[in-house]
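User: Nitroreductase/quinone reductase family protein. Structure?
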Amino acid sequence: MARKPVLLNSRLYAFGFRMFSRDHVAKISRGETVTFKGFDVAALTTIGRKSGEPRTVAVAYARDGDTLLTGASAGGREQSPAWYGNLKANPECTIRIGGVELKRIAREVDDEHYADALAKLIAVAPNYGDYADWRGRPFPIMALDPVPESENAGETAAEPATAPESDA
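Assistant: Predicted structure:
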């Protein structure tokens, strides 16, 4: 287990985390593919539960079929990130991966599927393994499910397709 940062729950740590997120969001918005410590980073846009305004943050993610998983760990801080509360209030969101923006519907991963989802996150971003220990409790994991095709009409970017299966 990695050592818990001394300033983890301080305002200084939170400020640094916001600056990190802004820098990565700016790069993703320009269509760049962003990685941090070896894992991919995406730009998640939610609607603020109090302001009603769009809020965009950088998040690590893992794939589970067509669903994307992200942990509301706030880097191991005691309090969950604001975007988690935003998704609980309004699950409609978009996520930008490189130059591709996808509409999604968020739901919290239930207890039955939590261990599998956490294992997928740890596989792509090992830091998640320490975060629950630092918090003293599990952190929420959000599943970002694709919006049904009929609701995605007019979207300008499509998720990279997988090769069709052969009938032979």
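The two ends are 48 Å apart (CA to CA). Strands lie at 34-36, 39-47, 54-60, 62-64, 67-71, 92-97, 100-108, 141-146.
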